[in-house]
Amino acid sequence: MKVVGIEELKQKAIEMRKTALTMIHEAQSGHPGGSLSAADVVTALYFREMNIDPNNPQWEDRDRFVLSKGHVCPIQYSALALRGYVPYDTIYTLRKYGSPFQGHPDMKKCPGIDISTGSLGQGLSCAVGMALGGKRDLKTYRVFAMLGDGECQEGQIWEAAQSAVKYQLDNLVVFVDDNGLQIDGTTDEIMPNQDLEKKFQAFGFETKRINGHSMEEIVETLDDIRVAKNGKPKCVVLNTVKGKGVSFMEHSCGWHGVAPNDGEYLTAIEEVIGGLK
Amino acid sequence: MSLMEKDIPVKKATREAFGDEIVRLGKKNKSIYVVDIDIGKSCKTTEFAKQLPNQHVNVGIAEQNGAGLAAGLATTGKIPFVSTYAVFGSLRMAEQIRQEICYPNLNVKIACSHGGLTPANDGASHQSIEDMGVLRTIPNMTVIMGADYNSTRKLVEQAAEMYGPVYLRFTRDTVPFLYDENEEFTIGKAKQIKDGEDIAIIANGDTVYLALEAAKQLEKEGISVKLLDMHTIKPLDREAVADCLNIGKIITVEDHNILNGLGSAVCEVVAEEGKGIVRRIGVQDQFGQSAPYEKLLELNGITIENIVTTAKNLLKN
Question: Between A and B, how many residue pairs show a Cβ–Cβ distance under 8 A?
Answer without folding.
Answer: 102
